[in-house]
Amino acid sequence: MDTKYKDDLFRKYVQFHECKLSVSDNKQRPINDEYLRVAASALFCLPKIDPFYRFRLIKFYEMAENSLRALKSSSLHSLHNAFSMLETVGINLFLYPWKKEFKNIKTYTGPFVYYVKSALTEDDVRQILNYMGYVQELGTTYKLKEQVDAIQVKMVSFELFLAKVECEQLLEIHLQVKDKGYSEIDVINERKTSNEDVRGCSEAMKRRAECKENLNTSMARMVLQKSASERASKDYFKPKVATKLGGVLSKNCKILVLSARFSVVVMGIVSINVMLVSKFTAKSVV
Model-level pTM greater than 0.85? Predict the structure, then answer.
């Protein structure tokens, strides 16, 4: 990732929010929120950037994947809202560090429960707030430490802003590949290891899905062909066996018939001999 581009975007981000303290008319601001969002999107789309350098403090991809796996209510859309709310906490803290209402965060309030706790795991929420300088007390309240590192808070807020923009990028990728059977977790896993932009990630996932479909089709065709070959082989050998068996039985039957006929002939000859002997004996006696 181009470090100079990111550092420049960070300065513009801080400048944009610090202008809120001195300029009341939004039209007089040289930078607006839309400009920052487009610039952040362009930052993530720089060619051949290393995913490792997209975030320095927040482990965005690990947090997103853990939340989607652990919380049924979590999604890329809800993560976008959670990071947005936590960014607001950071912005208020570095703009108005003296205000008492920002010294404590009550995690049991409606907005915090609805937007943050429903999307991010408790450990990830604690880690982000600790980066800002908050320490957990009594399980449901976070209290700000006496001394706050303003630069640290600004950097955390900036990375939460980048996390919000990255959620938008992931949603765009998922919109293009969900018809291929990919889940939001699949998109996160692809994005965290890819140095391609949104379009490159989408095309890579589509190609992989098409290759898998072609492979499954080929395997199914091979199975069908194998089954057809086995059936043809069985059909080929069955008549052969039957014909051979029939030939053997027919031959045996012929032998039995001939044997029977021979027996009849022998018996006939024996009977004739007996009759001749009887007549000869009778003549001799007379």
Answer: no
